[in-house]
Design brief:
- The chain is mostly beta strands.
- It has one domain.
- It is 9% helix and 50% strand.
- It has one helix spanning 3-13; strands at 14-15, 21-24, 30-34, 38-40, 43-45, 48-54, 60-65, 71-79, 89-95, 98-105, 111-114.
- The strands form 2 sheets. The chain has an 8-stranded antiparallel beta sheet.
- Strand 2 (21-24) and strand 3 (30-34) form a beta hairpin.
- The longest helix has 11 residues, at 3-13.
Length: 117
């Protein structure tokens, strides 16, 4: 699988609805435990623990499963959220019964909306 496809797949896995347990693991890295299967970009990812981090200044995000078996890369754009969103978070939506990663909030950085193509 090409590097771009892996990146797009990572993004698809983060989309979905539900709650996740996460904590900061560095300046701009999240370690998250997602209790359900999800899509990040165009990639379907299983439930499990993932590292989410910016890959470039252009908005590319890398999502890597613990153990290296699942990964995706997705493009994102900065967004302004209403209210106080100072905590790290993954945001999911549900489309046709499938959890889809729709956004990421890193501590100290603007929220990022995931671009789905």
């Amino acid at each position: 699988m090409t590097r771009m496809k892996k990146l797009c797949a990572m993004a698809a896995l983060m989309l979905g609805a539900g709650s996740v347990a996460l904590h900061a693991a560095g300046d701009a890295t999240l370690v998250v435990k997602v209790p359900f299967e999800f899509v990040a970009g165009t990639t379907k990812l299983p439930a499990g623990e993932y590292r989410v981090q910016p890959y470039s200044e252009t908005g590319l995000l890398m999502i890597q499963g613990n153990g290296g078996h699942s990964s995706a890369m997705v493009f994102s754009t900065p967004v302004t959220l209403n209210g106080n969103h100072s905590d790290a978070a993954l945001m999911f939506s549900e489309k046709g019964g499938v959890h889809v990663l729709s956004g990421v909030q890193f501590i100290g950085l603007p929220a990022r909306a995931i671009q789905v193509k």
